[in-house]
Specification:
mainly alpha; about 5% strand; elongated
Length: about 150
Amino acid sequence: QIREEAYVGLNAAGAIKPQHDFKVQVERALAMIAQEEANVTEKTKIALMQEATAYVTDQFTSTKALKKAALDSAIATIKGTATSGADPVQAAFVKFFQDKAADAKASSDDSEEAAQRAALIAKINGVAKGEGFFFEFGEDGKPKMTV
């Protein structure tokens, strides 16, 4: 009688453990995806800011009128007589980002996104194989059971 109850308990635990392991593996994969997306976002932000800074710096070092406008704006700000929205440096940054957004919207080249996705899938599949996950991701990004 006691042995039979023990086997029933073990069978019940045996049915739950794979589900728990699968849940942990899915959570790990999701955490990896979230971290990778955060890394890509941060790298993109840094690259955009560096490109914008270089663009605006180039604009202001090559054009005397822009230099004068920036100097006049800075002096007016210091004096307290500046009008709101009259900062030529800020306007140059805004124009750069508007142009960049328009270019991105017009472009249909998604090769960079496809390469990032393939790298992410390869990274997750490497971890999945190394740690014996019950699934891996196919080329299309959809999970496939391996058990």
